[in-house]
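Entry 14. Structure prediction run on the chain below.
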Amino acid sequence: MEKTVTSARATAVASIIIVVILLAVVLDHAQVLIAPVLTAIVLGLVLAPFVDFVERRGIPNSAAALLILAFFLFFAGAIFYFAEPIVNRAISNGPMIWAELRSSVEGLRNTVEDVQQIQETMNEALTDGEAAEGAAPAEAENEAVMRIPSIFDVLSYGPAILGGILIFVGTLYFFLTTRRDVYARTCRLIPSLTETLLIEAEARVSRYFLAITMINAGFGAAVMVAMSALGVPQPIMWGLATFLLNFMLYLGPGLITVALLVVGIVTFDGFWAVMPALAFISLNMVESQFVTPTFVGRHMALNPLMVFLSLVFWLWLWGPIGGLVAIPIVVWIRYIVSDGKDDEIPIPAPLPPED
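Output returned:
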């Protein structure tokens, strides 16, 4: 009997693993189609309560969804409009920053110059016989690597990008207008789910995302002020980068810390070279240890391992888009799996007063 139960459990685990692998393969190969659809649905979960709020004011559902969609597109367009010149300026300064970084580590390169010369001598001795016949392919390979993309290469991505945007906008609008019908049909297919549970789950995702957005905005403003006070170039860019990358918990702050460390080494001398990174780490500690628990609440706290694995999986699968949808998906799945029963952490009753 025990062997039968163990065999059944092993079969179930193996089936789950196979399904997960097949799902990852499908998501990877169908990224062009599934990525904008899933991103739109996740964003629809965030915006759905706002549609209900507008609808309760007497506006029809389709008009309310169109209004919220227009507001979101305007907000995203405004961010892109204001960020574009800052990003272009940072990219244009990239070669100069790289040159200064190379000069700052020139001393380290000099210390290993002898080792490099010995290695080159050994390589020349080993590859002397193959140099003549391998020269032409090597040149062709270098030319292929160094080839600069033409304008036609850039324009070739236009239809794919436009198609992805149209799929995203269309899916988002129709999800906002028909989501209750989708919930009802889903509940008929999966009896363990209820429409109330799905609506509360989307409200949970929306509250979490809204709280994180407000926290990231304040965090970005604080980083911008700190970088400006320290004299770091492009403080607005660092504030904007903090606002956007902090949605990717753990990984986003880590990337900004490394970037600020590089910029500090290039811009300052001595101890001041690490001050930008230290200032960011200090602000991040305040945000993660005090601000986020206060605004989000302990009952919405997520398991760090679950969050990290979700981020790693979706970033590996879809890149930056996966990083944006990873956390809302974890919040939604966590609430659905728990059946809404972990909404509040029970508070123990106070002890009776002593006589």
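The chain is about 80% helix and 0% strand.
Filed with the rest of this week's runs.
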